[in-house]
Specification:
The protein is α/β, with parallel strands linked by helices. The protein is 35% helix and 22% strand. The chain contains 10 helices and 13 strands. The protein has an 11-stranded mixed β-sheet with strand order 4-3-2-5-1-6-7-8-9-10-11, sandwiched between helices. A two-stranded antiparallel sheet has the order 12-13. Helix 7 packs antiparallel against helix 8 (215-222). The termini are far apart.
Length: 297
């Protein structure tokens, strides 16, 4: 009975930031009092229901089963990560999306897609399938953003830090405790760190805004939002060293993490980086990631 027509389904796609954006949106909407669900790389949850997720975007049967349970439990919004594998394998076909979010695009999964252009075109397919009642929210700072919404039927909204956009942000201060951000000329402090997280928070702000939530309410909750496990997660050790754990698995995301650390440190500290490219996938990115760490430490 097509449960996606009975819930506001928000799909987040892009190379990096999907889990952070989806999870923060899930937490924000629930704190506002809007009952929401989450389908993410980490888990599937709503209310007291929570199970581990084996794929970023589950198979069609699982997605619709979960959405149906959400509808039965009067969940109003669902935030779902949409992977390139999921789009290419038609796992999201037939779903009615209230909104689609594009975070960014850089090299990844080329063992599967074979070329960057094929990977990019698959991401675009998601936005091609949005209808004229939906929204497409795109990152104006990414050079592939306008390509994603070429001939797209949905209403387009933009967000950006470097480029002119409907919603804009600026990083005013940054240290290991968080950042002072300005979004649309309103300043607030966030425990999250890094320009990439400023961009993620701006994506969250954009979705919450089109859903009718007031700016002051959004920023109040974002100022209390803690980081996602494994995403620039800072652990302080007894000897006052900082350990930073991050899921960075692409050259672009690794570069963002290294740059963020370099912005904050004084260069007097010893900086040791341990990286890996697990799963025997896309071996072509390994040397690129090695060079980024070599040049950044």
């Amino acid at each position: 009975d097509n449960p996606s027509k009975k819930i506001n389904l928000v799909g987040i796609t892009g190379t990096n930031g999907k889990t952070t954006v989806a999870t923060i949106l899930f937490n924000l909407f629930n704190k506002i009092g809007i009952k929401s669900g989450l389908i993410s790389t980490i888990n599937i949850q709503f209310g007291s229901f929570c199970i581990e997720n084996n794929h970023t975007t589950p198979d069609p049967k699982k997605i619709n089963e979960v959405l149906n349970k959400m509808v039965e439990n009067k969940i109003q919004f669902c935030f779902m990560e949409v992977s390139s594998h999921g789009i290419d394998q038609d796992r999201t076909n037939g779903l009615k999306f209230y909104c689609g979010v594009f975070t960014n695009l850089s090299r990844d999964h080329l063992d599967y897609h074979k070329s960057f252009s094929s990977y990019r075109d698959i991401k675009k397919k998601f936005f091609d399938n949005l209808n004229n009642e939906s929204f497409a929210i795109i990152n104006a700072d990414d050079r592939n953003a306008q390509f994603m919404v070429q001939n797209c039927s949905s209403k387009v909204k933009t967000y950006g830090i470097k480029n002119l956009a409907d919603n804009s942000a600026k990083v005013l201060e940054i240290d290991f405790s968080g950042m002072l951000l300005k979004i649309n000329n309103k300043e607030f402090w966030t425990p999250l760190i890094g320009k990439f997280n400023a961009s993620n928070l701006l994506a969250v702000f954009s979705v919450a805004s089109i859903a009718g939530i007031k700016s002051i309410e959004i920023l109040k909750i974002l100022s209390q939002t803690k980081g996602i496990s494994g995403r620039f997660q800072i652990i302080k050790t007894p000897n006052k060293a900082f350990v930073i754990v991050d899921y960075a698995h692409t050259p672009n995301s690794l570069e963002n993490v290294i740059e963020t650390i370099s912005q904050i440190r004084t260069n007097k500290e010893l900086f040791t980086a341990v990286i890996g490219c697990g799963g025997d996938r896309d071996s072509g990115k390994r040397s690129k990631m090695g060079k980024i760490v070599l040049n950044g430490c």
